[in-house]
Design a protein that fits this description.
The protein has 487 residues and is α/β, with parallel strands linked by helices. The chain is built from 16 helices and 15 strands. The protein folds into three domains: 202 residues, HUPs (Rossmann fold), CATH 3.40.50.620; 117 residues, Up-down Bundle (Four Helix Bundle (Hemerythrin (Met), subunit A)); 61 residues. Helices cover 48% and strands 14% of the residues. β5 and β6 form a beta hairpin. α13 packs antiparallel against α14. The two termini are 30 Å apart.
């Protein structure tokens, strides 16, 4: 069965065929780092984390890029209100983002670029658009000429005539057409700026993603993702710039997750109806929110409530209890006077799971297959407990079912990461002690390397980095200190 993905561009489910067989390039728009992440951000992070995991499960080599918008009006306004540089605000909330991502087991992207580290790339991108006469400069501002891109509106299904209704030139703007949008903004007093051929200024939001995609993934990518609210104008404007410049399709598949609502209204900071990720994990295990997100199809709206979190918590405990049920059953006396097994149910659940996930990542249907297997496991477990014994064969079938359920939940859905259902306790403890020891050693080496860098002993710092690389440990130097991950 082939993987089908709903493509916002065509409005249809399509068979997935990557540009290069066996490899998938994905870009998703990251957060603007001026405040704490809320559940709306969390949903998008979880959705694309699961999509990435499932593509890997299918055997694809996935290159995943997710950016940080670290210069923006909201960041600047927050910095002014706190009387600090804008970089202080962005660094603070990038650190908070990483804290949230770690707790919710959002795997780090392969590349997590920041706008402020890609200014030369953005300037070159804009210069090339000007050369092709798709952009123009007016008194330090640079605008994209929307009418010159004849396919404008193809993603959001809007015509230029429709867009003109209500469009206007705001006071202070010098663009030639109400539809044109800014690629570069001349700096105002007290704002961060960079030197450019057009004077001091900063990039426009819609240009940043294009330049970073061209830099890290190329002119055409397999999947471009983000929240539904980014379809217009952000993604529409990305397409216009990228395809005007390259003459090639920008992304083969456009994937958008539905919004999170509260009582039917979009969750947003402007409405004040948002719940932060921190508030979630102060009350619940992060897995509960992951499971709630997965219980609704990614393209549908998710109406958040604490009542739904409670219902999801009960469902989570049911899955957890059947996975851990093997530890209960293996303590029962072995008796051959116990018939039945779970092998056929495991195969059925795996097949149903695969079919659902390959049908546009239908996580609610995929979860239903897992809960169906869990019910069969519960029935068998209860019967064995009532009887006071279980046969060797049935116990092995339960073990296989528990392993299968756990592996799928952990590897694809990111659930029960710390759960080890079918390994002896003493084995777990040894493994954890060894893992903790290895992590402690790596951290010591990172501390030594950081000290060497501060003292400008770069040969020592490079030697430590290279040796860790040889052992499969990749170091990333971030504004909040070095981070490492295993490859």
């Amino acid at each position: 069965m082939s993987l089908k993905i709903y493509n916002t561009l065509t409005g249809e489910k399509e068979d997935f065929a990557p540009i290069k067989p066996g490899e998938v390039k994905i870009y998703t728009c990251g957060v603007t780092v001026y405040d704490y992440n809320h559940v709306g951000h969390g949903r998008s992070l979880i959705v694309f984390d699961v999509i990435r995991r499932y593509l890997r499960y299918l055997g694809y080599n996935v290159l995943f890029v997710r950016n940080f918008t670290d210069v923006d009006d909201k960041i600047i306004n927050r910095a002014k209100s706190e009387c600090v540089p804008a970089s202080v605000i962005s660094d603070r909330y990038i650190k908070e983002y990483f804290d949230d991502a770690e707790k919710f087991r959002i795997e780090p992207a392969d590349v997590e670029p920041r706008v402020t580290t890609h200014i030369p790339d953005i300037i070159k991108f804009i210069q090339d658009l000007i050369k092709k006469e798709y952009a123009y400069e007016v008194d330090g501002d640079v605008y994209f000429s929307v009418r010159k891109f004849k396919e404008y509106g193809k993603l959001s299904k809007r015509s230029v005539d429709e867009l003109l209704v209500g469009a206007r030139i705001e006071p202070g703007e010098k663009k030639k057409d109400p539809l044109d949008f800014a690629l570069w903004k001349a700096s105002k007093a007290g704002e961060p700026y960079w030197d450019s051929p057009w004077g001091k200024g900063r990039p426009g939001w819609h240009t940043e993603c294009c330049a970073m995609i061209f830099k890290h993934l190329g002119e055409t990518i397999d999947i471009h993702g983000g929240g539904l609210d980014l379809t217009f104008p952000h993604h529409e404007n990305e397409i216009a710039q990228a395809e005007a410049l390259s003459g090639k399709p920008f992304a083969r598949y456009w994937v958008h997750n539905g919004l999170v609502t509260v009582n039917g209204q979009k969750m947003s900071k402007s409405l004040g109806n948002y719940i932060t990720m921190k508030e979630i994990y102060s009350k619940y295990k992060p897995d509960i929110l992951r499971l709630l997100v997965l219980s609704v199809h990614y393209r549908s709206p998710l109406d958040f409530s604490w009542e739904k979190m409670e219902e999801t918590k009960k469902a989570y405990e049911r899955l957890k209890n059947v996975i851990e049920g093997y530890e209960v059953l293996k303590r029962l006396p072995i008796t051959e006077d116990f018939e039945g097994d779970l092998y056929s149910q495991v195969q059925k659940a795996q097949g149903s799971f695969y079919s659902a996930m390959s049908d546009d990542f239908n996580t609610p249907e995929a979860l239903a297959s897992l809960f169906a297997l869990a019910r069969e496991m519960n029935t068998l477990k209860d019967r064995a407990i009532r009887k006071g014994g279980i046969s060797e064969k049935v116990l092995e079938s339960y073990k296989e079912a528990a392993d299968s359920l756990h592996n799928i939940c952990r590897d694809i859905f990111g659930l029960f990461d710390s759960l080890q259902p079918c390994i002896k306790t003493e084995e777990i403890n040894v493994e954890k002690k060894e893992e903790r020891l290895n992590e402690d050693i790596i951290q010591v080496l990172l501390d030594v390397r950081e000290k060497a860098r501060k003292e400008k002993q770069y040969s020592i710092a490079d030697y430590i980095r290279d040796k860790l690389n040889e052992k499969g440990i990749v170091i990333e130097d971030t504004p909040v200190g070095p981070k490492w991950k295993k490859t």
